[in-house]
Write a structure and sequence with these properties.
564 residues; alpha+beta; 8-stranded mixed β-sheet; 5-stranded antiparallel β-sheet; 21 strands; elongated; binds N~2~-sulfamoyl-L-arginine; binds zinc ion
Length: 564
């Protein structure tokens, strides 16, 4: 799935808003250090900008956008330089403090190595013992050989909430899967007190994690056969992920007991599948299922039993949600994940878990294939990957968890604006799709919330339906300098209100007001006019004040409006 650059930027700018207006810096080596984003036009401006920082954060450096850390002194000097830049984060130490708090909160050492059934179970018990207010263990049933298949139920305030389910380790040899499932559980529990996103999530939904669906196969992979995949039925094994009730026995599965994709004698012939099935059927609040595997770095939505796509609007919604998950995962370490349909984009496989959850139970469902992309190393991942994989998948899991409390998918129509011109009343177009299967968007609920002074409450503006799932409204007139901030809310009929970006008023999209004072000499004058005329007809983003893709008369009017 293509990854629009601008979408990433919108997210970054949105996240940066958390710090707008915060000036009380904490203590620590980075106290008062800021993260800035420079808009540099050419190599010369780039090298000038680089003199104001010792720590460039951007991965690709060249003319365009460069993010870097600067000290308070460097920030002051940069401010005086006349280079075009925006402050993304006022106090980097605050970010570091959050990170440290989360690391200290984590039980040390567990994620330094892969862990067997006994260790995973003991770690789960440790989490329950430490935070019985947040996490409980529930036995769901027994495997073929009589091992406990258990769920970790993680929840903050409130009861009778929507449920999001993660299952892992249908396939024994995919050792990164149970570690990642445990990483999600561990991080949810240990950052509930420090990460407001986690608190918001766990107060709104219940997260249920089954780290090892196939404990017999997993045990066996720690003994005689590291690369064992199936359960232990008859010593030959059934592929649990071919034993579900939709598309059972179809393409991509086999009736030969020796096959790695042996589907068993009937749908749900295997106790492990029965145990999860019965849990799902007994939980009417369940909304989302994610089935964790390795490998391939994939985020796959149904359908899985066929190369045909899910019917619209489900497929459109799945595409949108998949992209959100993918971007969240990629935002952590820049790891490339590919999003698509399981059958069409990976391979068709009858009887997989997400199809049964989606087709028979109306749940949103996904398969995650974790690192790496290919083999070697394939299933034999270095243990040093456990934490980074956990970190990136945790961000994806937060989005997947959010889906259970959202009723629509909201995105800005590309190209998303990055700047607003002074005096401009920028039109925001949003694409909004219903999330729950079979739902419709409540058109009267779609609202743009905006402010232009950084402090007032956000004012709601109704967005008009333009057709093709697009809703539109103009932002209030931008001030001469500063920022315009906005977020969007909408809901499906009978569904909960959904906010974009997540966090709404506390995490809005921030559009810096562009200035026609291109040379930053404090006055809009003939020199700036000369810049504009020199770029006439081009798409130079530094001169294209209206952000409409062309330097033209609209930009000239903006410049003239701020003349002098
Ligand atoms: O084949 C599987 O069960 C999964 N891949 S794995 O390498 N972990 O075995 C993929 C299941 C996703 N579903 C489809 N591709 N239909
Ligand atoms: Zn697998």
């Amino acid at each position: 799935m293509p990854r629009p650059e601008n979408r990433t930027l919108t997210t970054l700018l949105g996240a940066a808003a958390l710090s707008i207006g915060s000036v009380a810096f904490g203590e620590g080596p980075y106290a008062g250090d800021a993260l800035v984003r420079a808009f540099v036009e050419d190599a010369e401006e780039l090298s000038e900008f680089l003199t104001y920082t010792d720590d460039v954060w951007s991965h690709r450096i060249g003319p365009g956008i460069v993010d870097a850390r600067v000290t308070a002194e460097q920030l002051a000097a940069l401010d005086a330089s006349g280079l075009l830049f925006a402050v993304l984060e006022h106090d980097i130490q605050a970010l570091i403090d959050l990170e440290r708090a989360s690391m200290q909160a984590r039980v040390g050492g567990f994620f330094d190595a892969f862990r067997d059934n006994v260790e995973i179970s003991a770690h789960a018990d440790g989490l329950v013992a430490a935070r019985p207010d947040l996490i409980a263990r529930q036995s769901l049933g027994l495997s073929l050989e009589g091992r406990d298949i258990y769920a970790l139920r993680i929840s903050g305030a409130g009861t009778d909430k929507p449920i999001v389910l993660f299952i892992a380790t249908q396939h024994a040899r995919e050792w990164i899967a149970p570690m990642t499932a445990m990483y999600i559980a561990d991080t949810l529990v240990n950052t509930y007190d420090t990460d407001p996103r986690v608190a918001a999530l766990l107060d709104a939904v219940e997260v249920v994690i089954v780290p090892v669906v196939n404990p017999d196969g997993y045990e066996y992979s720690w003994g005689p056969e590291r690369l064992w995949r199936k359960n232990r039925r008859g010593g030959y094994g059934v592929d649990n992920n071919r034993n579900w009730g939709v598309g059972w026995g179809g393409i991509g599965s086999s009736s030969s007991i020796g096959s790695q994709v042996y589907h068993g004698t009937a749908p749900f012939s295997e106790p492990e599948n029965q145990v999860i099935r019965d849990f799902v059927l007994g939980e009417p609040n369940l909304r989302v299922l994610t089935d964790i595997h390795s490998y391939g770095q994939l985020v796959l939505s149904p359908l899985g039993y066929t190369t045909a796509l899910a019917p619209d609007p489900d497929w459109i919604s799945f595409e949108r949600m998949t992209e959100e998950v993918e971007l969240a995962i990629e935002s952590v370490h820049g790891t490339d994940y590919f999003g698509g349909a399981a059958g069409a984009d990976q391979y068709p496989a009858g009887g997989d878990a997400p199809d049964w959850h989606y087709v028979d139970n109306d749940l949103l469902s996904w398969t995650l294939e974790l690192r790496p992309t290919s083999s070697p190393p394939g299933f034999i991942l270095d243990a040093s990957e456990i934490v980074p994989v956990g970190e990136e998948i945790f961000e994806g899991a937060l989005v997947l968890g959010q889906l259970a409390m959202r009723s629509v998918s909201i995105g800005i129509v590309e190209p998303a604006p990055l700047l607003v011109a002074p005096g401009q009343s920028l039109v925001i177009d949003a694409e909004i799709f219903p999330l729950p299967i079979n739902a419709v968007v409540d058109a009267s609920s779609v609202m743009l919330h905006a402010r232009t002074d950084g402090v007032s409450p956000f004012a709601p503006i109704a967005m008009s339906a333009m057709g093709n799932d697009v809703y539109s409204a103009a932002l209030p007139t931008a001030p001469v300098e500063g920022v315009v901030e906005f977020y969007i809310t909408a809901k499906a009929t009978d569904g909960p209100i959904t906010t974009f970006p997540m966090g709404g008023a506390s995490n809005p999209v921030v559009l810096p007001v562009a200035t026609a004072d291109f040379n930053s000499d404090g006055v809009v004058d003939g020199v700036d006019l000369a810049y504009l005329l020199a770029s006439w007809g081009t798409s130079d983003p530094l001169i294209d004040l209206t952000g409409d893709g062309t330097v033209d008369s609209a930009d000239l009017s903006v410049l003239l409006a701020s003349w002098g």
